[in-house]
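re the bet — no i am not wrong, look at it urself. input seq straight from the record:
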Amino acid sequence: MKLAVNYSEEAERLVSDSLVEIDLFKCPDFSREWIDHAEKTIPCYIHFGLNAGDRQMDKVNWEKVKELREQSKTPYVNVHAVAFAKDYPNTDIFSTSPSVVNGIVDAVVRDIEIVAEKVGMENVIMENIVCRGQGENTMQAIIDPTIISEIVHQTGCGLLLDTAHAQLTSKCLGYDVKEYISQFPVKQLKELHITGIQADEEGRLRDSMSMTKDDWELARWVMQRIKDGDWQEPWVVSLEYGGVGPKFEWRSDQDVLIEQVPMLCDLVK
């Protein structure tokens, strides 16, 4: 398994100064400048902002996807499995109606098949997102492990497991996070994202934060499942802390990186 960290200027300086050791930077697909910066230090891979389930795949610039993927030698094209409440008007977000569930599954499967036509199904991985419950913008069905497993089974794509997304979902909906994750198609695990979750000033939980005691406990449990052979070993484990742009640059504390990157490295390596 390789170890990656979200690209940030702070992370780049630390790697350049040999204060942290990682294999890769994980870079967003929206800035060639940052990708070029990252690759001057160590290799990077691209995390694509593609959604499967909102019927927008026909608007994707596939030439750009191909170019970025080839430049960085990114092995997989990731998609986020989504079902936005706005696309299912007058429908309870907790609906388990077969017509609603089948509609969600069909929409995600169709979009994944479009991606597969461009890159091959063996190169597509699907990431779990967050569902916070009533009053939010996500249909609960899309985070149901049974439905996630059904989509993976129907398409043959791989799984990108985001533990922070699973933990946020579990805390908001009252699940036991380990039981919840254990129901995912972990035998098809291809990539793993780990980061901390913390409350903002209004008490709303968010991810891409520094790791807390609970986050580390979950990370250790997940890594043990992989090392015991219960789950498939992913090609990369990425610490999704910090980043670039207004949404992430304020939470790119180099002291956090100096402390937590080696801790995750110990778990992964």
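see?? Residues 2-268 form a domain with the TIM Barrel fold (CATH 3.20.20.150). told u. also The two ends are 7 Å apart (CA to CA). so pay up
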